Amino acid sequence: MQFRASIAAAVSLFALANARIYGIAFPETVKAGDQVNAIIETENYFQTVQDIAVAFGIAPEASAYPGTLSTVIGSFYLGPEKSNVLDNITETVTIPADLAAGTTTLTNYNVTITVGDATSENYVGSQ
């Protein structure tokens, strides 16, 4: 009976080492031309997941098309070092300087943000 308890504990600890990406977060308001942190949100998962790369795109809300990147603002290799990790991953992207003020959409995990006069400290995440 004690042997089973030891195996269960080991399996539980092994499960804690598995993770996957479940969304992204960006400052709620960004200033055109600013560099901002893009947060790739991760969570505990029941199996190993190999995430290879991530790319971010931005578009004015009126012209955003689901499943497309529109204007690419950053792409990053994740590979083994940043794949299957429990801690959120932060990458820096630059908001295009010529992006007009107003509501924009980040795709493929959709996050709606506002382009304004200053970059906010408040982050909003994908749903």
TrEMBL record:
Residues 1-19 form the signal peptide. Pfam families: Nis1. InterPro entries: Nis1. Keywords: Signal. It comes from the Eukaryota. The keyword Signal applies. This is Secreted protein NIS1. It comes from Colletotrichum kahawae (Coffee berry disease fungus).
